[in-house]
Amino acid sequence: MSARILGATIGRILRQLRHDRRTVGLVVAVPTLLLTLLYFMFEGAPSTFDRVALVMLGVFPFIMMFLVTSIAMLRERTTGTLERLLTTPLGRLDLLFGYGVAFGLAAAVQAAVAAGAAYWLFGLDTAGSPALVVLIAVLNAVLGVGLGLLCSAFARTEFQAVQFMPVVALPQLLLCGLFVPREQMAGWLQAVSDALPLSYAVEALALVGRQATPTGDTWRDIAVVAGAVVLTLVLAAATLRRRTD
Amino acid sequence: MGVVEVAGLVVERGGRTVLHGISARIAAGSVTGLLGPSGSGKTTLMRAVVGVQKIRAGTVTVCGSPAGSAPLRRRVGYVTQAPSVYADLSVRENARYFAALVGRDAAAADAAVADVGLAAAAGQVVGSLSGGQRSRASLACALVGAPELLVLDEPTVGQDPVLREDLWQRFHALAAAGTTVLVSSHVMDEAGRCDRLLLVREGRLVADDTPAGIRASAGTDDLDRAFLRLIRRDGAGAA
Fold first, then answer.
1. Interface membership of A181 toward B (CB under 8 Å)
2. Average pLDDT rounded to a whole number, residues B209-238
3. Which residues does the UniProt record annotate as the domain ABC transmembrane type-2 (chain A) (predicted)?
């Protein structure tokens, strides 16, 4: 890895994003619009809104960054820019961390706007710090980036790439404990849930909701998600081959 | 010792042998044309030279190192047939990114953009350019690193005659300054502008000679006809 090449790559990805105003608008506004929907859905039940909105603050960036990244990386593969990059001094990790940092920054803006709306407009109430909520949201976004980079290796077209979203994201959302508490699930479902990184992110958010100061459990959950991010990036690196058929 | 040394190169793609043991040498500071009908293996050979092609047997050595090895990555420039630049960035932003990858500054990037005649379109997003302009944008991103070996896959396709003339003059100016240029084409009237020609047919090297040598061995002054004769002679020999 090289700091100069990583920096240039982050700048390039952010410049691409800047040229695509509509995507920027969607990335920034959509989570807030969805939170508005939740607010009116649970207007008479503020405690349910607190529980669901808090989880969604972590889930939206995960799903959106997964989609954005898998399409962006697929384009690198299909337009030949990836092959060209691999003939330059750029290392595989320069590219993957470039995506992780660039989209992580975009996710930070997204999460800050969504959390701002949730706390100030919709009266979201958490015992713990909003900054920790944003941190977990950004970590989830980077997890989405890592999984998107990995999944793009298994898609040949953009049609296929978007199909990975229900495959990768929805089971994690269903089993994360939002719909059915994890302890009430059948043993095997719980085991699957235990293996999915989003479960830890959602648990960490729920803990921030209940506890004024983060405990060892919160940090352990955050560490698990961070570990999953590193794992997906390493697996994604293994799918980038300099030599192909 | 050539800048590029290819020995016994065999490449298989999708269970089919695309290159059948090619051996060739490309001299420093020359413009070498890689010619042949479409599907003959020109692109595969170029991909092997830049080190992105899986090879079955044989060796490809560039500047004394195995093709594609780390020390070569700032010394070799590669322009693919389909322009591989970012369609959602401007020409200037593309050139500056590829410049940064090889440690060149923004001024070098702007100079490369001007060199391919795109100074006036530098601020335009590549996706809004014509096909010919896009491929010149792609060329600029390779020129910016001032590579010792420049591998160009059909760079003149879609260019008008004036720009083609400009590009060929540029390739020769680069070669005169010491750059080795390997350029593929299926347009035979461009073959005469090369210092040396490699003629490929169905994954085999049919001729490796100067344009004059090829004219002489085929017994005609017309390169187009010379190639047809050599290819037919080779086809007859194979059958």
1. no
2. 84
3. 22-243
